[in-house]
Amino acid sequence: MIHVKTPEQIARMHEAGKLLAACHREIASRIRPGVTTADIDRFVERFLAQHGATPEQKGYMGYPYATCASVNDVICHGFPSDRPLQNGDIVTIDMVVNLNGWLADSAWSYPVGTISEEARRLLEATKGALYAGIEKAVVGNRIGDISHAVQTYAEQRGYAVVRDFTGHGIGQQMHEDPLVPHFGKPGKGPRLREGMVITIEPMLNTGTYHATIDEDGWTARTADRSLSAQYEHTIAITAQGPLILTDQTIFQA
Ligand code: MF3
Ligand code: CO
After folding, report:
1. For the chain, which residues score pLDDT lower than 50?
2. E runs forming strands in 31-130
3. Is the CB–ligand 1 distance for residue 94 below 6 Å?
4. pLDDT, tens digit, for every residue of 162-186?
5. Which of 48, 105, 54 is closest to 236 using CA atoms?
6. Is the CB of residue 41 below 6 angstroms from any atom belonging to ligand 1?
7. pLDDT at 197
């Protein structure tokens, strides 16, 4: 069942989203060679606590950390660790913020120091695929219109779209209906209506889209150990068009 939100409820999710976006801006300023993702995870816990929010991922289905930290060939759900980030790495930090019972979800890939041209192009294409999907998040379209736009954007640039993990509805629960796959056919799937809130969170790989899961039961890697990146926003479907609840650009002067 798809929960449609009132404008007041979307405003509360927007507050969670603005806090999450601010947290990502702080992370961006902290990521550099030598920093560990465990350091970043501790920073996020502190930042959210200082702002009266909690990390929804911690304890979710037994997940042990506030953030997911996915380095290089890790697609998603990597554990924060004490391994220092190295020049040339790419790392995706994913988190779900709970502010007064309302949630927002956003993942962002960061370059560490100076990265390869291959990695830079992957980041650019993955962010572009997210925004290609957001453009289709309008009243009257269907979920498949978003899926198809993301897939087309990615594949035209030579990247594979991960199948095993999708976007989702979100509200007072992290995962609500509908599923939002990042591959599919236009005109298919649930119709988008005013008040729906979804995530779009494409994961693009330089090699195969197939994934394997590590012994820890969480860490998803590309089967061929190729590079993977991810960008995710939480988006409200409004009469005025897609409203990006986790937009970071509002903090630019
Ligand atoms: N933020 C992720 C998503 O997009 C969820 C991470 S799984 C968790 O759905 F268990 F770690 F929370
Ligand atoms: Co999500």
Report:
1. none
2. 54-55, 68-71, 74-76, 90-99, 102-111
3. yes
4. 999 999 999 999 999 999 999 999 9
5. 105
6. no
7. 98
DSSP string, 175-214: SEEEEE-SS--TT-SPBP-TT-EEEE--EEESS-S-EEE-
For residue 154, which amino acid is it? A
So what's the pLDDT on residue 253? 57
User: If one looks up domain 7-244 in CATH, what number appears?
Assistant: 3.90.230.10
CA angle 182, 186, 189 (to 5 degrees): 75
In short, whether 68's Cβ falls inside 6 Å of ligand 1 is yes
3-state SS, residue 226: coil
Identify the residue whose C-alpha is closest to ligand 1 atom 8: 57
Pick from 250, 240, 238, 230: nearest CA to 95: 230
CA atoms within 13 A on the CB side of 61: 6
Cβ 206 vs Cβ 227: under 8 Å: yes
- Contact between 106 and 20 under an 8 Å Cβ cutoff? The reply is yes
201 touches ligand 1 (CB under 6 Å): yes
Is the Cβ–Cβ distance between 165 and 199 less than 8 Å? no
Cα(232) to centroid(ligand 2), Å: 7
Concatenate the DSSP letters of all residues of 46-93 into one string: HHHHHTT-EETTTTGGG--SSSEEEETTEEE-PPP-SSBP-TT-EEEE
Q: Is 246 touching ligand 1 by the criterion CB < 6 Å?
A: no
**What SS3 state is found at 37?**
helix
Q: For residue 57, how far is its CA from the centre of ligand 1 (angstroms)?
A: 6
Question: Which atom, in ligand 1's list, is nearest to the CA of 61?
Answer: 10
Residue 250: per-residue pLDDT = 87
Strands ordered across the beta sheet of 203-205? 160-161, 203-205, 228-230
